[in-house]
Amino acid sequence: MPDNENLLRRHRAVMPDWLALNYERPIEIVSGKGNRVTDADGNSYLDFFSGILTNMLGYDVPEVREAVERQLATGIVHTSTAYLLRGQVELAEKIARLSGIPDAKVFFTNSGTEANETALLLAAYSRRSDQILAMRQAYHGRSFGAIGVTGHRGWKNTSFSPVNAHFLHGTDRHLPQFAGLSDEDYTKVCVEDLRHVLATATAGDVAALIAEPIQGVGGFTMPPDGLFAAYKEVLDEHGILLISDEVQTGWGRTGSSFFGIGNHGVTPDMLTFAKGLGNGFAVGGVVARGELMDALPAVGLSTFGGNPISMAAANATLDYVLEHDLQANAARQGAVIIGGLREAAARLPVIKDVRGKGLMFAIELADAATAAALMEETRKRGLLGGKGGLYGNVVRMAPALTLTDAEAAEGLGILIDSLEALNGS
Ligand code: PLP
Predict the structure, then answer these.
(1) Transferase: is it a keyword of this entry (predicted)?
(2) How far is ligand 1, taken at its centre, from the CA of residue 57, in Å?
(3) Alpha carbon distance 393, 16 (integer Å)
(4) What is the CA angle 334-232-269, rounded to 5?
(5) ipTM beyond cut 0.90
(6) Is residue 141 lining ligand 1, measured as CB closer than 6 Å?
């Protein structure tokens, strides 16, 4: 039995069935450099999903590696959360400033799930309510609270949750009742729906709305720009907090704004982050107005959240993003790729929709089988992507923000060749 089949058999024996692996023959990635990875069989791939939006600068980035090595050389991988940590304070200062949230404070976690769980806790405590608004087809994590605000059947393992959630329209324009509506009219319908939900379905004491500015596993589904600003006017009337889940959309990825919520022209009360900030090292966190963050009545900590190694990686990654203005690169490369895919969509009926912002773009196909086939076609040609969408019918791409002109052209070429093969042309 070839070695990676053996590994797959061992994986299936000891790991959960719901831990989905990509590709008919799952890949074991053994090394990476720049925006390319190599598998155990020696195949090289252009990674158009940057791990899982984790390697936002690519692989083996000297600035990040050297920062981590410098920290390792001190002998301090972890001490105690009872001591001051310089890297943690420095990173919190940068993120607080970048968030635009007034009087912001930052709490570090190890994952996006924990970050959202913390934000929900802060909201529930400060508003003394377990009622949360969330978006249909959203995904916010796999913990008991986060699953409660997840509105995507494919990722929702239980409806038992400490959170009492109400799900809003805003990312479901594919439904027939919204066909043909302009952005403006759809936004009006959504705002009316929000008012109706508040008046008729809740007990009137809702704590927060949590939302992804562009839905990740939901298939890079995009609410119309400005929707969250329109929602916020209503939320403010009721003292309801806005939590922006930036786990996928943060750090300039959308090209047009440093955090995804900026595309809506609104500042949230809290913002959560994870994935790309550590360029592969585990870092997540919450930024909240100080008054919300400080309100919790008991002592709290995260033993590994904000640890020295993650902080070294995250400071180096964030500095790199800012010094090289990778937001501008995301805007430029994204425009080329999305433009190229739209042109292809005009002549290839296999493409049902192309959408995205910056280096976060997706191709919608008729069904999950066609999406799986596109994944296989791109893999054959040396490009990795990610599957998603409400019906598993979307192929998502989120390359590293360091993507070069040549890599963008190469990736676009592979995508078009693969779509042409599927289209039978
Ligand atoms: N929020 C969003 C928008 C995500 O996409 C994810 C993960 O994919 C999470 C939260 C959960 O993050 P993690 O897997 O780090 O717990």
Answers:
(1) yes
(2) 19
(3) 23
(4) 80
(5) yes
(6) yes
How far does the centroid of ligand 1 lie from the alpha carbon of residue 378, in Å? Answer: 25
Of 354, 359, 396, nearest to 375 (Cα)? 396
Query: Exposed/middle/buried for 74, CB within 10 Å: 0-12, 13-18, 19+?
Result: exposed
Q: What is the mean pLDDT of the chain?
A: 96
CB distance 364 to ligand 1 below 6 Å: no
Cβ-proximal residues to 64 (8 Å cutoff; 6+ apart), any chain: 57, 279, 313, 316, 317, 320
Among 8-22, 302-316, 395-409, the range scoring the smallest mean pLDDT is: 8-22
Q: pLDDT digits over 102-143, tens only? A: 999 999 999 999 999 999 999 999 999 999 999 999 999 999
State the pTM of this model: 0.97
Instruction: Report the DSSP beta bridge partners of residue 371.
Output: none
All residues at 6 or more sequence positions from 374 whose CB lies less than 8 Å from its CB, including other chains: 363, 365, 385, 395, 418, 419, 422
Q: Cα 332–338–344 angle (5° rounding)?
A: 140
Q: Is the CB of 140 under 6 A from ligand 1?
A: yes
Task: Give the residue whose CA is nearest to atom 13 of ligand 1.
Answer: 112
Please give the pLDDT value at position 26: 95
Using CA atoms, how far apart are residues 73 and 70, in angstroms rounded to an integer?
5
Q: Is 216 in the pocket of ligand 1 (CB under 6 A)?
A: yes
